[in-house]
Amino acid sequence: MKKIDLHIHSTASDGTLSPTEIIAAAASAELAAVALTDHDTTDGIDEFMAAGKAHPEMLTIPGIEISTLFDGREVHIVGLFIDHHNPKLLEFMKRIQGERHDRNLKLVEKLEQAGYPVSLEEVEAVSGGKIIGRPHFAQVIKEKYAFNTLQDVFENCLKRGTPGYHPRVLPWPAEAIAAIHAAGGVAVWAHPVYRNQNERSWVRRVLRKIAPEGLDAVEAYYSKFDATQTRIVIELAKEFNLALSGGSDFHGENSPGVMPGTGFGGLEVPENLLPPLLEIAKKYILKQSDPSNKDLKEE
Ligand code: AMP
Ligand code: MN
Ligand code: MN
Ligand code: MN
Question: Taking the domains of the chain in order of start, what are their residue ranges?
Answer without folding.
Answer: 4-85+173-296, 94-158
